[in-house]
């Protein structure tokens, strides 16, 4: 006789099953999520094409540090393996061309300087290959026969690794640089390392830097970039040079453009070199966009393949057949993959869309490897086959599955002078499109950069706190042509502010933003524009100025931008009126009404802390609500994970105080 099951029991069982199968509710992003996000970089394809190595950086929240390890993923995307596990960090993984080993740079095991380590690709512990006694290793590349390595080594300074440092004696035109600190004469030179004998031969000498070494396919020559003008500190020049891969060889200058030539890639047959060069031939280059070029290894006039495109090109990589070159193109909030005919420069768009591609590497099959991000997906590695992307890594899949992210859309505003400006709007998850929201304008730095349809943690974080967030690609940004980029030359804080205010008018008039609850913030040039904007218009009820400066007249010789001052503004003793005019946020601080939070890294040489300190002091003197946050030991970029979390918490608390009353 069959036993019946009570209805209530069946109902309860079905309820339990239904509950178990229901998706886990998503939550909003929060500042502590900085500990969960990973950074992928430097993907490299194995010679047989079966594996891709890359560096994965993750946060150890207990130690409050970010650590980088080497991973690899199979080309079919089915297998992912972590290769290194040390707490010292590893980077710049490179496959030996014979496919037997994977090398990387690390200072593990208590080393005082970085060395090259070698790991059998079949497994086992890595062993130290080099034992460099002097200088610091900055770059390296394997010869095609796997028998030699070209090393780029920075000469040690007199004050390095000394218990009682000597006085720093400076005699350079540009004498300071963020992260590097004060600049002494410590050039980067190329050396040839023999793997079998451990012999180190000098390739280049002198007072100049040699960087980005690239072997010719036959292993006979090395191409590199160098500025060998009379005083490299006084210009932005770099040229491409060639040297035979043997000691005491003679250098050959390949390019002679007075601007910048860089980003070298040899053609498969070794007869040509693809590279990038600046549009401008001026001594100082900032407002610029790189042009894709090809030149014979024997010299001559280059072919300027993308000269008429009027968009910046990056990451050139030859196609397998040598008839075309793939590259990335930045264009109006996107970065797409394009193919250029190597003879006439005819361009074909390969992969486009509201996304941002960041790297390109050629696969032995002729396909490509790339990294890509979109507004809902942090950067991951993809195969690019027949113009179709196939995802290889999924390091953020679990993270994204649990988070409700802002919806992202583009819009175009019109400034009061008629200029069309491209913007991006982040709307909080599940927010009604009919609701007027408190809105923060979070302004990008650069200024020569652009906000793209990519995953942006800062704007997503502010949106998760309940704000509409607006990214403005003001004049000075890339992606809209050279004239748009150069429009702010020697005229800072004018057209950019006009464009920001035009975007503010748009979101208010279209019912997106609450006109009484507008905020503004940014870092670096975004912080500078925050200062300029609140000194121009009082509509913003709160501001967060990060690593900014408002008194330009006080910064000559204080930051790292001496070339910019000299070439855009001229010397202060000749053009002091210009410096004063550009200092209006500080000199007219008494007309500012916006409560403002100032932040900066203590050791920032890019935009030094004095810029934030001056504005903070002015606000305190005037009685305008303010606070100053100094992050100890930090440079221009805040890298300490707990400080990154702290910055987001302070942003949200500050804006909530004034925009959510």
Automatic annotation (TrEMBL):
The keyword Protease applies. The keyword Signal applies. Pfam families: PD40, Peptidase_S9. Keywords: Acetylation, Hydrolase, Protease, Serine protease, Signal. Residues 454-661 form the Peptidase S9 prolyl oligopeptidase catalytic domain. Residues 208-232 are annotated as: Disordered. Residues 218-227 have a biased composition (Polar residues). InterPro entries: 6-blade_b-propeller_TolB-like, AB_hydrolase_fold, Pept_S9_AS, Peptidase_S9_cat, WD40. Residues 1-20 form the signal peptide. PANTHER family: DIPEPTIDYL PEPTIDASE FAMILY MEMBER 6 (PTHR42776:SF27), SERINE PEPTIDASE S9 FAMILY MEMBER (PTHR42776). This enzyme catalyzes the hydrolysis of the N-terminal peptide bond of an N-acetylated peptide to generate an N-acetylated amino acid and a peptide with a free N-terminus. It preferentially cleaves off Ac-Ala, Ac-Met and Ac-Ser. Also, involved in the degradation of oxidized and glycated proteins. This is Acyl-peptide hydrolase.
């Amino acid at each position: 006789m069959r036993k019946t099951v009570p209805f209530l029991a069946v109902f309860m069982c079905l309820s339990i099953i239904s509950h178990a199968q229901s998706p886990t509710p998503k939550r909003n992003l929060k500042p502590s999520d900085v500990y969960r996000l990973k950074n992928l970089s430097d993907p490299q394809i194995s010679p047989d094409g079966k594996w891709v190595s890359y560096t994965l950086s993750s946060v150890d929240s207990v130690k409050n540090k970010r650590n980088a390890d080497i991973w690899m993923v199979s080309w079919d995307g089915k297998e992912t393996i972590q290769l290194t596990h040390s707490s010292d960090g590893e980077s710049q993984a490179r496959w030996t061309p014979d496919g037997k080993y994977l090398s990387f740079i690390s200072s593990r095991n208590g080393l005082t300087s970085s060395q090259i380590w070698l790991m059998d690709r079949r497994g086992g512990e890595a062993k130290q290959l080099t034992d460099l006694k002097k200088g610091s290793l900055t770059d390296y590349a394997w010869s095609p026969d796997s028998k030699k390595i070209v090393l780029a080594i920075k000469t040690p300074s007199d004050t390095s690794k000394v218990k009682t440092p000597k006085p720093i004696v400076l005699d350079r035109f540009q004498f300071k640089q963020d992260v590097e600190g004060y600049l002494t004469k410590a050039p980067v030179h190329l050396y040839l390392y023999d793997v079998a004998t451990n012999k180190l031969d000098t390739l280049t000498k002198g007072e100049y830097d040699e960087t980005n070494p690239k072997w010719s396919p036959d292993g006979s020559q090395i191409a590199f970039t160098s500025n060998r003008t009379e005083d490299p500190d006084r210009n932005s020049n770099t040229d491409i040079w060639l040297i035979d891969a043997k000691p005491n060889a003679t250098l050959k200058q390949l390019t002679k453009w007075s601007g910048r030539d860089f980003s070298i890639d040899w053609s498969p047959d070794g007869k040509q070199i693809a590279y990038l060069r600046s549009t401008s031939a001026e001594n100082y280059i900032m407002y610029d966009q790189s042009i894709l070029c090809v030149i014979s290894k024997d010299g001559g006039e280059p072919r300027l393949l993308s000269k008429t495109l009027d968009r910046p090109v990056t990451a050139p990589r030859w196609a397998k057949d040598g008839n075309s070159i793939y590259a990335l193109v930045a264009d109006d909030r996107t970065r797409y993959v394009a193919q250029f005919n190597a003879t006439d420069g005819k361009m074909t768009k390969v992969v486009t869309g509201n996304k941002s591609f960041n790297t390109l590497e050629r696969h032995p099959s002729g396909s490509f490897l790339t990294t890509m991000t979109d507004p809902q997906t942090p950067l991951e590695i993809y195969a690019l086959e027949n113009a179709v992307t196939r995802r290889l890594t999924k390091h953020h899949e679990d993270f994204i599955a649990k988070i409700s992210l802002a919806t992202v859309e583009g819009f175009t505003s019109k400034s009061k002078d008629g200029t069309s400006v491209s913007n991006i709007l982040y709307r909080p998850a599940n927010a009604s499109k009919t609701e007027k929201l408190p809105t923060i304008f979070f302004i990008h730095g650069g200024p020569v950069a652009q906000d793209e349809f990519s995953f942006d943690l800062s704007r997503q974080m502010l949106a998760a706190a309940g704000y509409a967030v607006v990214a403005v690609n003001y004049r000075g940004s890339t992606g809209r042509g050279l004239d748009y980029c150069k429009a702010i030359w020697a005229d800072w804080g004018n057209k950019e502010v006009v464009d920001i205010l035009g975007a503010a008018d748009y979101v208010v008039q279209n019912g997106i933003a609450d006109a009484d609850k507008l905020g503004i913030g940014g870092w670096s040039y975004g912080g500078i524009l925050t200062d300029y904007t609140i000194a121009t218009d009082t509509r913003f009820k709160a501001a967060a100025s990060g690593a900014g400066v408002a008194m330009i007249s006080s910064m000559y010789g204080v930051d790292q931008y001496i070339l910019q001052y000299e070439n855009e503004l001229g010397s202060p003793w000749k053009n002091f009126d210009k410096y004063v005019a550009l200092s209006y946020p500080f000199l007219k601080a008494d007309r500012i009404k916006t409560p403002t939070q100032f932040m900066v890294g203590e050791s920032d040489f890019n935009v030094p802390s004095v810029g934030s300190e001056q504005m903070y002091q002015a606000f305190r003197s005037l009685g305008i609500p303010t606070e100053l946050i100094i992050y100890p030991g930090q440079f221009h970029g805040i890298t300490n994970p707990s400080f990154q979390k702290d910055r987001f918490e302070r942003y949200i608390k500050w804006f909530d105080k004034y925009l959510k009353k």
